[in-house]
């Protein structure tokens, strides 16, 4: 667990850094696409939530997760083939990070982060660009 200071800028800059964000999205996609099929099924996305939102996997009842998956696929499975390809997944990740940024707001906050968490990457990037 690391302590970091961040605000919405930390996250939006991370998303706006296209090369960096693409790498990040590709890494997550590869990690969630456990069978290397090149697209993510509902079960894989469900598993993915456990990885990037550890809170969700324990504190949210199954129906809530199902409802969230339903919403995600309705909105982001643009070709309606029942799975998310890399492009669709990238839009989802962009949306999630922007939602996180709005939640944080413009004032600096102190957060405790696991080293592998989504936000940790954003913080590390900000620190790297400052030095
Ligand atoms: Ca699709």
From TrEMBL:
InterPro entries in alphabetical order: EF-hand-dom_pair (IPR011992), EF_Hand_1_Ca_BS (IPR018247), EF_hand_dom (IPR002048)
Superkingdom of the organism of origin: Eukaryota
Coiled coil residues, start to end: none
Domain called EF-hand: residue spans: 20-55, 64-99
UniProt-listed SMART domains: EFh
Gene Ontology molecular function: calcium ion binding
Keywords of the record: Calcium
Protein name as catalogued: EF-hand domain-containing protein
């Amino acid at each position: 667990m690391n302590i970091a200071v961040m605000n919405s800028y930390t996250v939006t800059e991370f998303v706006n850094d296209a090369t960096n964000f693409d790498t990040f999205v590709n890494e997550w996609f590869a990690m969630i696409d456990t069978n290397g099929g090149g697209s993510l099924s509902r079960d894989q996305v469900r598993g993915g939530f456990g990885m990037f939102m550890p809170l969700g996997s324990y504190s949210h009842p199954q129906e809530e997760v199902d409802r969230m998956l339903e919403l995600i696929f309705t909105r982001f499975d643009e070709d309606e083939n029942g799975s998310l390809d890399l492009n669709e997944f990238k839009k989802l990740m962009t949306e999630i990070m922007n939602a996180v940024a709005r939640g944080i707001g413009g004032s600096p906050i102190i957060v405790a982060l696991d080293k592998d968490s989504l936000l940790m990457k954003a913080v590390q990037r900000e620190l790297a660009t400052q030095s």
